[in-house]
């Protein structure tokens, strides 16, 4: 499994998006499909689920279907095959698609940063990367994307990943939790929402993170170049709905959780009292909100969803160094080519969205 502000809200621009809902009602909603790189759309995807709950995409004129498809590669395949207009994917897969397969997959929106960590027992003796020497680390699979970052982290601390650390695949759910509790492994290398789920299961964790990890972009909205050229307004509208949802969720996380439970009751956790269940899902959701906030800062701190080419170029260099790709590709060549694109995404009244969140209005 892959996991996965200063807004242009001046009076001269604020009126533009407000006219769109009326326009949208005069024509049938256009069907749009987003392939999401996960198997379950739980509370940890507010930028994707909230636009449906809050009607943001309908206001833009679109009837959106979210399609959980598994890994990022599957999302790319769905777009290439014409089964989805967008994919929410790991940024590294976009780079690989362009560098290795010459596929015109384009970056439409930056949503997250690399949020992996090595979770170890909070009261145990492991406090730094050097303490991982001779230890066994559990991972989702031996092909999981975080391993490249861990190997770089170990090398920078004088360890040889091939000799000094053993990794074993554990998947998700109970096996990683039990492996750490039993001592079968001494660390768990997983993305933030997975680590949060382990904490919800009762683990008390210290998190080891490379200094540079959160300086790389990760979760990204992708679109094929042909789709963007054919319907640029659709790309703007979908991204704007996600930007508004991000602002809403950050303004009132508990409301975002409750709205998710109301619309997707099957994803609500069980096995505890209501207050505990809410605390668990807030912890899971916060992992994503932290990544959204860090991505906003990483990409300039002015426009929601902005994808800074410099950040993606850093990722390309890292992937070259770690031999995930064998030729460079420029971030500029991977960006959606729509004039004033990120400014258009941010043409909405932030204060109105935040006020609605404060009142928990859907």
Automatic annotation (TrEMBL):
Keywords: Signal. It is found in: Periplasm. The keyword Ribosomal protein does not apply. Pfam families: NMT1 (PF09084). Residues 53-255 form the SsuA/THI5-like domain. PANTHER family: ALIPHATIC SULFONATES-BINDING PROTEIN-RELATED, TAURINE-BINDING PERIPLASMIC PROTEIN. Belongs to the bacterial solute-binding protein SsuA/TauA family. This is ABC transporter substrate-binding protein. It comes from Roseomonas populi.
């Amino acid at each position: 499994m892959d996991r996965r502000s200063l807004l242009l809200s001046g009076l001269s621009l604020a009126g533009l998006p407000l006219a769109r809902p009326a326009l949208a009602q005069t024509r049938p909603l256009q069907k749009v499909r987003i392939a999401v790189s996960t198997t379950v759309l739980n509370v940890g995807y507010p930028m994707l689920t909230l636009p449906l709950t809050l009607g943001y995409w309908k206001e833009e004129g679109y009837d959106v279907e979210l399609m959980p498809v598994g890994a990022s590669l599957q999302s790319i395949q769905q777009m290439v095959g014409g089964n989805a207009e967008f994919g929410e994917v790991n940024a590294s897969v976009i780079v690989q698609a362009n560098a290795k397969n010459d596929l015109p997959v384009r970056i439409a929106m930056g949503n997250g940063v690399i949020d992996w960590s090595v979770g170890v027992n909070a009261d145990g003796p492991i406090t730094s990367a050097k303490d991982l020497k001779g230890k066994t680390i559990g991972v989702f699979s031996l092909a999981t994307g975080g391993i490249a970052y861990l190997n770089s982290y170990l090398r920078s601390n004088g360890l040889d990943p091939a000799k000094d650390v053993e990794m074993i695949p554990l998947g998700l759910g109970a096996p990683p939790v039990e492996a750490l509790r039993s001592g079968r492994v001494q660390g768990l290398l997983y993305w933030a929402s997975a680590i949060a789920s382990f904490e919800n299961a009762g683990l008390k964790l210290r998190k080891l993170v490379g200094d540079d990890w959160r300086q790389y972009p990760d979760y990204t909205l992708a679109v094929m170049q042909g789709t963007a050229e054919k319907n640029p307004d659709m790309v703007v509208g979908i991204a704007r709905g996600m930007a508004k949802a991000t602002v809403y969720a950050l303004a009132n996380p508990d409301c975002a959780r409750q709205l998710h439970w109301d619309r997707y009751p099957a994803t609500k956790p069980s096995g505890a009292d209501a207050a505990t269940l809410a605390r668990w899902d807030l912890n899971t959701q916060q992992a994503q909100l932290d990544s959204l906030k860090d991505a906003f800062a990483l990409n300039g701190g002015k426009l929601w969803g902005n994808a800074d080419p410099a950040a993606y170029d850093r990722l390309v260099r890292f992937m070259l160094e770690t031999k995930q790709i064998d030729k460079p590709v420029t971030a500029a060549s991977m960006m959606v080519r729509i004039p004033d694109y990120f400014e258009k995404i941010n043409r909405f009244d932030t204060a109105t969205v935040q006020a609605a969140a404060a009142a928990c209005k859907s």
